[in-house]
Each structure stands twice: as structure tokens, then as C-alpha cells.
Write a structure and sequence with these properties.
The complex is a heterodimer. By secondary structure, chain A is α/β, with parallel strands linked by helices. Chain A has one domain (about 5-180): fumarase (Alpha-Beta Barrel), CATH 3.20.130.10. Chain A contains six helices and seven strands. A five-stranded mixed β-barrel of chain A has the order 2-3-4-5-7. Classes of the chains: A alpha/beta, B alpha/beta. Chains A and B meet through helix 5 and helix 6 of A and helix 3 of B.
């Protein structure tokens, strides 16, 4: 398995060279966003208003972290299931979003949008929230504080470990992985 | 009549939710070790090693295994010779949940279904009471995450579907769930009773320890067979491919109506958390 180090924000060139199964270590700024935050971002887009973050080149991490203990930047912070953000993802990619981190299968529209707008879907290990939190060095709420664990946070990450699930060519690690190990 | 103080119940509930969320059961850890040994996929082995390391960090730091520290589900068995004093029992349990999730730095995931406004203290808890013989109170705390719960289903099969129909329903449900419920999963299957009873049986089935077979040898065989079928699907840990899609399958069966065959599948992620206390 190839291991690739990438710095955010991501460019078209960064994401186009990625292939399913690649292990990527992300360093830089990423933004959290899950169900309720996506709904609010989408409502702003529909109303033609400015988003709280310029999402061009950015990576959104589908996560609702546990509260930080004193002296820690963040609590446990593993991925949430991504399909719930499928209704919003293609529009965000059209506006320049380059990466999504989550877990679980994406819909056909989302996979197609990744091809069309050059973006990738990364998987982080679900349920490994205590381990993944170690790669998050700083966390700051930048929008929708009232949403509690669903607020949008700006995270500074170092070598945050993810795997490419869907690349810009329409490949899907979940489909290929299961095919390889399926038995009659 | 034995008296039990409501405050004692609050304390027990608080401690159980923190314990369950931070300390993964040794049965699950042992199942991880078996999977690392047996899975054919090197990626699968690597993922499960990460899960082991995650569990170690959570235990050392007393931080939650997973950020989804769940809705607070409880099974509470009250001995019929117990008298709860010093407060309202349900309020005492909810107070314990509030304290556990607050003082334990656990995520509050309870919200209004329509407005999605967070209740901010993870209450109300989902409490299943039972009255049993004796003078003890047994409390099982089950933090239940949303991702795996969302993959759960109830169906009212036709009695003609029979046991084969039930097995197919379970395997197809896990296949359709794919990578969503954080495999390797634990699968609770409730059969019989009514619509709601089957779902409750499925959740109760998840209270067993990994490897603990049904006392009925025929059902024990069915559990082993369905687990083998699920692990042939190839989904594997995190859905990246492999032979460890589920760690175990538990069936709980009760009689049902002559016209019905209720079947419920309750999916549990690998963070199979449940801790109990007896007062």
C-alpha cells in the first residue's frame, strides 16, 4: 500500500494522483462538518449568501468530536457515517471542495461528482476516535456553536491517517475490497 | 422489603456509562486478536490492530473509545422486594446519565427529531425496566451509537419463510449495511413476540459476550452458521475487504402469533459497549 503525505489545502493535481487503497497522511487545516452544519451551509448556498469558510481546496471531516478534557485540544474524534451528507456533497464539490473524510458507502451521485469536479473521499478508521484525536493538534469552533458537537470546527492536523475510498476515476475501495474476499 | 437509595442508583449509572465508554470489554479485545490471526487480508489485520491500539489509548487516558458515546440505553431489573427511596427512580437514572456524560467528557448526542436541537445532557435515557424476583437492582448501561443503529431493521415475515427466511434476512441486512456500521460488527437477532418485542430481543441479544452461544444447541448452531455466511460476504473490517465482517451473531427467540414471524436485526459496531452493576 502506497503511503502519501499531503498538505492541505489540496489542488487538482494532489487529488488526481490518488488511487483507491492509497494510505494518505494529511497535514494542515481541515474543517469539521456533519448533518446539521451541512444543512445550514446548503441553506446559505440556496439563498446566495457567503459561507463561513471559503471551501475551495478544502477538506471536510464528517465528525462530531467528544468534548475536550482539560489540557487537550479535542476529545475522541473518529468519523461519522457519510451517506447522510450525500445530498449536500456534490454542490460543495462544485464550489471547490477537494476532499471529504468519513466512513461508509457514498451514493452514485457523489461518486460521479468526484469524477466531474476532481475530488476524493477518504476513509478514517471508524470507532478509532481516541487514536485519531492524537493527530489533531488544535481545534477552534468557527461557526454554529449552538449545534454543540455538530458545530463547524477548524482543526489543525499532523499526519492524520486516511485511506482513499473513492478516487477521481470513479473507483470504489469498498466494491473492490469486498470482491476480492467474497466467498461462495 | 430492602431499601435502595435513589442516589446510589444515580452514582452507579454515572460510573457505568463512563466505564462502558472508556474500557472496551476483554471479550471484544480477544475477538480482535483472533481476527488478526485469522483474516486473510493484510489491510484487515492493520485496521484491527488500530482498533486494539485505540482501545489501549482510551483505557490509558480514560477517554471514549469512540466519539459517538451513544444514546444512553439501560436495562434495569428491579427485584420485587426492593423499595427505591429518596427520589424518583427514572429521574435518578437520568441524573446519572447527565452526570456521566458531563463529568466523563462524553459526547451528548440526544436531539429533537425535527428541530435537531440538542438536549445538551444526553437525556432522556432509553430505559427498559423489568421486575424480577429478589431484592437486588441490576443495571446494564449500553451506550448505543447511531451509525450501527441506523443499519438495524425489523420485518414481519410470513410464517412460511421459516428459519431459512430468517437467516437470509439477517445476512442480506448485513450485506446491505456494507461499511456503514463500522464492521466488524456484532449482530443481535430477535425473533418472535410482537413487532416491538422482536426489536427488544435483538437489543438484549447484544448484551451477550462475544463467543457466548445460545443455551439451546439448535439455536447455537444457527448462530454459528449465520456468522460464517456473513463472514463470506468479503466486506471485512471498515469495509476495506476481508473475512472479518462480524465478530459474532446472537439469536434470542420467543413465541409469536400464529399469523406472524417478527424478525429484528440490531447491528452493533465493534465498540460493543455494555457494563453492568448490581446494587
Amino acid at each position: 500500500m502506497a503511503e502519501i503525505k499531503l498538505k492541505t489545502p489540496l489542488t487538482d493535481q494532489d487529488v488526481e494522483k490518488l488511487r483507491i487503497g492509497d494510505k494518505v497522511l494529511l497535514t494542515g487545516v481541515i474543517y469539521t462538518g456533519r448533518d446539521a452544519a451541512h444543512k445550514r451551509l446548503f441553506d446559505l448556498i440556496e439563498a446566495g449568501k457567503e459561507l463561513p469558510v471559503d471551501i475551495r481546496g478544502q477538506v471536510i471531516y464528517y465528525v462530531g468530536p467528544a468534548p475536550a478534557k482539560p489540557g487537550k485540544p479535542i476529545g475522541s474524534a473518529g468519523p461519522t457515517t457519510s451517506y447522510r451528507m450525500d445530498a449536500f456533497a456534490p454542490k460543495l464539490m462544485e464550489l471547490g471542495l477537494k476532499g471529504m473524510i468519513g466512513k461508509g458507502n457514498r451514493g452514485a451521485d457523489v461518486v460521479e461528482a468526484m469524477k466531474r469536479f476532481k475530488a476524493v473521499y477518504f476513509g478514517a478508521t471508524g470507532g478509532a476516535g481516541a487514536l485519531l484525536a492524537r493527530s489533531i493538534k488544535k481545534a477552534e469552533t468557527i461557526a454554529y456553536e449552538d449545534l454543540g458537537p455538530e458545530a463547524i470546527q477548524r482543526l489543525e492536523v499532523e499526519d492524520f491517517p486516511v485511506v482513499v475510498i473513492n478516487d477521481t476515476k470513479g473507483n470504489d475501495l469498498y466494491v473492490e475490497g469486498a470482491k476480492k474476499y467474497r466467498k461462495p | 422489603m430492602r431499601e435502595v437509595q435513589a442516589a446510589e442508583i444515580t452514582k452507579a449509572v454515572r460510573d457505568l456509562f463512563i466505564d462502558a465508554n472508556c474500557n472496551l470489554g476483554v471479550d471484544v479485545l480477544a475477538a480482535f486478536d483472533r481476527a488478526i490471526e485469522k483474516d486473510e487480508s493484510s489491510v484487515a489485520k492493520e485496521v484491527i490492530r488500530e482498533l486494539k491500539e485505540n482501545a489501549r489509548i482510551a483505557r490509558d487516558e480514560q477517554s471514549p473509545i469512540c466519539q459517538d458515546t451513544g444514546l444512553a440505553v439501560l436495562f434495569v431489573e428491579i427485584g420485587q422486594d426492593v423499595h427505591v427511596v429518596g427520589g424518583d427512580l427514572k429521574a435518578a437514572i437520568n441524573e446519572g446519565v447527565k452526570k456521566g456524560y458531563g463529568e466523563g467528557y462524553l459526547r451528548k448526542s440526544a436531539c429533537h427529531p425535527f428541530t435537531r436541537a440538542n438536549t445538551k445532557d444526553n437525556t432522556p435515557a432509553v430505559i427498559h425496566f423489568d421486575i424480577v424476583p429478589g431484592d437486588r437492582v441490576r443495571i446494564v448501561a449500553v451506550p448505543k451509537g447511531g451509525g450501527a443503529e441506523n443499519m438495524s431493521r425489523v420485518d414481519m415475515l410470513s410464517p412460511s419463510a421459516g428459519l431459512e427466511g430468517i437467516k437470509d434476512f439477517v445476512v442480506k441486512r448485513i450485506e446491505a449495511s456494507g461499511s456503514n456500521p463500522c464492521p466488524p460488527t456484532v449482530v443481535g437477532v430477535g425473533i418472535g413476540g410482537t413487532f416491538e418485542r422482536s426489536a427488544l430481543l435483538a437489543k438484549k441479544a447484544l448484551m451477550r459476550k462475544i463467543g457466548e452461544r445460545n443455551a439451546d444447541p439448535e439455536l447455537a448452531k444457527v448462530e454459528v452458521e449465520v456468522l460464517a455466511r456473513i463472514n463470506k460476504l468479503g466486506i471485512g473490517p471498515m469495509g476495506y475487504g476481508g473475512n472479518t465482517t462480524s465478530l459474532d451473531v446472537f439469536f434470542e427467540v420467543e413465541p409469536c402469533h400464529i399469523a406472524s414471524l417478527p424478525v429484528a436485526v440490531n447491528v452493533q459496531c465493534h465498540a460493543a459497549r455494555h457494563k453492568e452493576a448490581v446494587i
